[in-house]
Amino acid sequence: MRRNREGSKEMPATADSASERETSRRRFLKASSGLLAGTAISSTLSSQVGAQQGDKDSQTLERIERQSRDPQRRILLKGGTVISMDPKVGDFIKGDVLIEGKKIVDVSANINARAEVINASSMIVIPGFVDTHRHCWENQFRRVIPNADIAGYNDFRDHVAVFYKPEDMYAANLVSALGCIDSGVTCVMDWSHNSRTADLSDAAIQALFDSGVRAIHGYSAPADTGKWDHQHPQDLIRLKKKYFSSDNQLVTIAMATLAFYDGKASDIQFARKVGVRTTMDGLSGTYARVVEELEQSHLLGPDLTFIHCTAVSDAGWRLIADNGATVAMAPTSDMQIGLGPAIPPIQKALDFGIRPALSVDVECSLPTDFFTQMRVALYVQRSAAFNRKYKGEPNPPAPITMRDVLEFGTVQGARANGLLNKCGTLTPGKEADIVLIRADEINNMPMNNAIATVVSGADSRDVDTVIIGGKLMKFRGKLLGVDLEKIRRLVHQSRDGVLARSGHKFDDVTV
User: Fold this and answer.
1) What CATH superfamily classification does 67-123 receive?
2) Most buried pick, 269, 272, 336, 417, via CB within 10 A?
3) pLDDT (tens digit per residue) in 491-506
């Protein structure tokens, strides 16, 4: 026997009660069919509402584009959940961001201003992601060597690099930059270690300008020993004069040098004479004492960014911290292609008071998006912290938070690229590099924690709107002013041409 809610005994089920249950079942099914019909009607109404909103968006976009050359044009992002990443500005469950020209002029709970309004309701408004190290010139070969280790990557790079023409540099940098924009990366360090000729550098830089991304062209000597013009580092002077006479533009330049390059010390000295920052790749494997060697030559300083850092000693970490240099992690790269030791040293950086930045590195093996980098960084550090706790260490490190990781991907990226005065936070006075992420998609609804939704829930398909320097680059999920079919032809022709000239074969190009 069973008991009812009042606790009295119920009689066993009878034929009559079974009949009642069948009647109840039919009544439920009938009601359910009504709900389904209601859903269909609701979907129709929703489509009508969506169409109306689409018309409004189209009209808004048309007006914004007509005013694109007006330095006083205003755009108001209205009603989104705003994560400013600036503690002085704060965050808003429901807030607005006002843009005038290329700059943010206000971030607050409710802004009333004459402006073109972009409806940001059901969206999360964040600073654009900042990538501190991506070899853009390789990216017509996305995922061509997905299972390679570092030796396999070096073999690929060395075999194809010498067969690049300017149009190949252009195609790769353009598709890479557009991939950044599409996935919410508004600023990228283009680490260009295939600058074999002046023409190759020119093509790479032109693609960055044409894409509309904020970028730093990392001018480097070639990574391998193949044929080149030996114009490095002197060509940096020509490039700076030709393309970068002003710092008040989206694309700027830096010196890029490799930890295993014999001329790295002279590169740093030359960069300082020219007046640009230096980024150093390859602090891994056997290059454990590079930082100490630079200190002995009195070359450490806040204008240096060190990448990977998997082999840096404790003494080296202390020197980086004491000299105000910055660090760029490549979480997926270290682990997937085995830059030894292969665990990203996120906790080691934190132990020395260094807040690391993040980067994608090589798309020929790794993901394009920044959501993956944030998640891997989160899991690596938290796993290490918890393991140290479970081993009984007296003072294990605290696990990092979702906000920490978003900071690494925005604030610290801007700092490592030398652009924190321009981007990285939603701060009045900074340039408007802003991303709107949809929180009402099936993978994100219902939104219960905005930062966790960005870091742990969202992906590239949720990037609704991207603004760079106050200009709309992506709107309602679509890149603006991009002929995708033309881009497809460009990158396919480039990939096939380089492969034909090099004779290099990949067993798994199409599988």
Assistant:
1) Urease, subunit C, domain 1 (2.30.40.10)
2) 417
3) 999 999 999 999 877 7
